[in-house]
Amino acid sequence: xxxxxxxxxxLVFTVCLYPVFVALLTxxxxxxHALYAHxxxxxxxxxxxxxxxxxFAAHQVTPFNVSTPDHEVLYAWHILPLATVxxxxxxxxxxxxxxxxxxxxxxxxxxxxxxxxxxxxxxxxVAQGWRTDTYRALSNQPHTHVFTVDYRGFGRSTGAxxxxxxxTDGRALVNYVLSLGIPPxxxxxxxxxxxxxVATAVGLSFSDPTSGLLPQSLAYGKVNMDKAVFRSIILxxxxxxxxxxxxxxxxxxxxxxLAPLRNSAFLVSLVxxxxxDTWPSGLRLNAYVSAASTLSSTSNNGAGNVHIxxxxxxxxxxxxxxxxLFAMATGKDVEELPLGAREVVGEGKVGVRVEMLEFGxxxxxxxxxxxxxxxxxxxxxx
Length: 382
Ligand SMILES: *[C@@H]1O[C@H](CO)[C@@H](O)[C@H](O)[C@H]1NC(C)=O
Fold this sequence. Notes:
Rossmann fold, two-stranded antiparallel sheet, 38% helix, binds 2-acetamido-2-deoxy-beta-D-glucopyranose, alpha/beta, 382 residues, nine-stranded mixed β-sheet, 11 strands, 13 helices
């Protein structure tokens, strides 16, 4: 009896509260807090200005600020390759923790230096969760410098997040690295989860700055609008677009967002109209492949490839999203992809590779060896 009664109450609760939940999410402020979850972080008891507390070697990480053309100040990290730290231990030991001069000199003076620009997922700050393991894994590769940033409204960065803002922030970090004299052919853009949407849009904004698929309000500032194709764009646990994702997304693998509406085309179109930031990565990646192919064939030999990785046991974003993204990027039909890698190189086009992994879940996967291998692969022949 008790079980029946509580089951009934649960049903009433769910049926009545779900519409309230969906209605609340149409309020812009609530929607952006739910999507970006930037206020959910451990900044109160973790000090990102003490990278050693996250397991880095002394002086391996230099925190610094990047300014955006629309006057936000973003908090960022420059992580040195461990081998570079070892070779310069004594000089680094006398350098101030926030002094960028020596770390940047080590980057600029290494002819084999390569840079991974990392765009993290939603919630938290640069050092949240598995993120630090990712940086450590990559900086264990010789000559590999990692740059990572907190988007506006995240961690110690100023402002509040939205789609145009995050893309502006991504561009600001990439422009910072370019301003150091690092050529695009030595830069890999790596994104995970929400960061894949940023990585894709940033890639498109450099290969085709005037693309109609980019937000109108993107703040380019006075930076030059020279086109660029980077070494590679690596997308880990991505999604094809936000409305599409929300139809299958379950918060923490449990609570559905729009899945209950999925069978009603009317309700779906009604509710998706209220999604403010749609992050159309599938369309953008397709446009990127076209634009990058044209640029890559004339200048950067072999650059611009896309590598998508997704774990089958991802409980947050289904691997089906990568199947859709791959199909959209390559212009093929959506198909069920087996475990392992598949590559499509259209004639005269940059390659698009998709790799279905058996393990890795949603967040941890970016720390796993296949992502390290993807970075190595990207830089092969450089
Ligand atoms: C970055 O900016 C913040 C706020 O403006 C400032 O407090 C901090 O000292 C700056 N950090 C560095 C490393 O310059």
